Amino acid sequence: MIKNYLKIALRNLLKFKAYSFINIFGLAIGIAACMMILLYINDEISYDKYNEKADQIYRVHTLGKLAGNTINIAVSPAPLGETLVKEYPEVIQYTRIMPNNTMLIRYKDNVFTETNFFWADSTIFDVFTIPFLKGDPKTALTQPHTVVLTEKLAKKYFGNEDPMDKVMNFEDGTPYTVKGVVKNCPVNSHFHYDIFASVASLGMDNTPHWISNNLYTYVVLKKGVPGSVLESKLPDFARKYAGPQLKELFGASFDELRNSGNLYEFHTQSLSSIHLNSHLDYELEPNSDVKYIYIFSIIALFILFIACINFMNLSTARSAIRSKEVGIRKVLGSNKIQLVKQFLAESILMTFIAVVVSIALVEIFLPSFNHLAAKELHTSYFNNLIAIPALILAVLVIGLIAGSYPAFFLSSFKPVTVLKGQLNHNGGSWLRSGLVVFQFAISIVLFIGTFIIYGQLKYVQEKNLGFDREHVLVINRAWALENKAETFKNELLNNAQIINASNTDNLPGRIFGQIVFKPEEAQSPQQYILAIMSTDYDFAKTMKLQLTDGRYFSKENSTDSLAIVLNESAVKLMGVKDPLGKRIILPGQTPGQNSSFTIVGVLKDFHFESLHQKIRPLAIFLNRGQTSYLPVRIRPADVSGSISYIEKEWKKFVPNKPFEYFFLDDDFNKLYQSEQKTGEIFTVFSILAIFIACLGLFGLAAFTAERRTKEIGIRKVLGASISGIVVLLSKEFTKWVLIANIIAWPLAYYFMSSWLQNFAYRISPGLFTFVLAAIIALFIALLTVSFQAVKVAVANPVNALRSE
Amino acid sequence: MLKTENLKKLYTTEEVETTALNNVNIEIEKGEFVSIMGPSGCGKSTLLNILGLLDNPTDGNLFFLGQEVSDYTERQRARLRKENIGFVFQSFNLIDELTVYENVELPLLYLGVPVAERKVKVNEALEKMEIIHRATHFPQQLSGGQQQRVAVARAIVGNPKLVLADEPTGNLDSAHGDEVMGLLTNLNEAGATIIMVTHSPTYAEYGNRVIHLFDGHVVTENYKENFHV
Question: What stretches of A67-131 adopt beta strand conformation (E)?
Fold first, then answer.
């Protein structure tokens, strides 16, 4: 019997090729999209789990609220890890790392800047799983001035030489000895290393400061001890160790501070939760968000569901064709269950073919998807124990879901009615319309989502930030100029293409440190935390910052080394009236070491951080020493000429150091990389969703047109025009799409409003966005439907009537 | 074999109630060849569908092989049908996606007949209908007469006690019509009970009895003189 079912199924498949194609291809696209999203999700949730001790490792970070400022940072104080191990028996090991993303390293003639550079404790190899190819993990980083390289890096510097015990020179000339070679860093790690250097080389690793947070601390708990055990002990721990130093700084005890609304706490995060759930300041790398996992899962399910709906709709729409067979089978003694089984077997067969096609589609499109999602996903059906059973299960489940409704619908026909040709063709049409409405509602939600994401991205990229980010070339590692920076700048300005140049230790879009200040005239012990940076005289000019009061630093004022420039927010926070000439105090580590600065200017607030955040209070010092960056404002014309001019000058000044530069606008826009990526993925999948939905609509329109052939013939005989017929046939579908909008709008509004909450500065989604999505959906739907409608409408009515 | 008592069938739509059959009392013995005649809409097909257990009467009793079946569920009727009744239709009702052989085989599949036995029976039926040379063809490759022969082969392959034919000659020219009537007569002579709905008085005469229906009533029942049960 099963052979008979399969035979019928296959012959039907071949006989109605267009229908089979729509069904199988639509389903295959849906399944392929679903598979790629699942691969993506699978990769996202696998982060850091390759570590053998993954479930025992926790990162301890600092959370606080001091002087009106929130501290929510991934870093922690230097003595934290060691003290935790001493204090609590369940903490068996700790390690600390500190990144440096501009480390210039030299071996003979090979000079490179390493961006994945970490200072690390020797215990790093005890905590994380980092397999050694050469050297001994126990001793590799115990001594100062030692490094461990990855295979990749060893190859880059040493080629085929044995790197062990070779000496590399860091930028300042210090020699470092290679003590180990490790395997390359796995992709799914929340930080990516190429080289570790012993943190002992820095000398700062043993500072006893509990209020200064510079290092990332990871601890290993005893097996079976949950993180909550340590977490519950950390409040007391903070009081015991950070308390005394807080008192020194703020003049109030830990508990007094807490009672006045301040906080200083340590918290644990399990290692495997960092990639998706940690959104602190100073993360090692931008993390992903578990929200996107949910969103993408839902999209994957929806796309699959849309494809299944096509299957149901087309199968039931085609019921007229299959009904005769159902009738005959029933007359010949088949019961309902047998027919249900037959139709289910048929849909499972279709699904099976669709899955095979989708595997091919995934193989074809995975590289593009990887490019899109910045991933290195790959399929491994045979290495993965669950892949094959999962695919078989998918065939069965999807086949059953897609086939269940048609199976019960078709098998319930009464033989007498169908054989008499009196089948009610409108059977199931309500459900069919409902499903199409649902498909379009999903597509429209995805459309609106895409528009809003892009709208917001456009907004953040074009918003006036309070400085001019266009046409600013930034020379990286400007400290290589040493004391010749001023001369270099002057040399650049000789070129008419170069408008301005400046030295600065920081740039908008980068990470800003912060310090506690106190206005001199304030009576209360109130202190304020301000973000800080230091620049030369020309920074405001080069960035086109606006002053609301006073002046920027100037060479004419010899006392400017003790001057300070604030932004409006800082003035407002500290409540300084008539700020010019007032002084603010920077408390020293010990009382009596205070230094004071005179406010010489107030800058209009500008966005030195991403638009996710409100503009923070900022203080700028004068810097006449070496700095990290040298931003150069150039004229828009002949950019490449300017670049080569600057490079030529650089080579004159520092012939042995590489010339590295980037453009400020590109650099700043990297802050929205994750949204950019999400937007692109969203676009692709919303196009896929609407495509599959239209594929279904196309098929459905074909059957509707076919069903109404006689009606259309009669109407034409009676004098209906072609356009009249097209309108007649399109009206129904238009109605569906409009209803879909009514469902989609509130949903899209709700979801997208909550997404926009991620930005402190955001667009408000206007009605236009929604109307645009509606118009596009309607346009696509009508285009799809009218193709069929026109075909039927222009046909000779005689043929239509004869067929009856 | 078949007996109806006050058989009634109503069709109800939203506004109108149509009486298709009203107090039909007939009895059909084993081995009979009964023709049912009457104008369009008189209830012929409705009666045939009820007699063939494709439909339930609204009221009245139907005895099939001595059992009261008017309240049977679709599932029970399906079982009785496949074991006892063969159908022949005006429009042949062959499954287009199956070959001649597979169409004829279908009832045996539902009866659960083992494969070897199926082969024998299908070939027998096809030979009897002289269509065996077309076994691997699809219905649409055959003429109307040939298709109806396949349909008859399918109706008799399970060796049913009762064959119901709903205007079996309606879509055929007279030569093919005669041919099909000849086949039915042969079947009847071989022992099968046949009930046939027809418009044609000539073909109706092939039966031993002609029942005339009008507006859901049995108007007359004419036995041929020389017939004995």
Answer: 69-73, 76-77, 91-100, 103-107, 110-114, 117-120
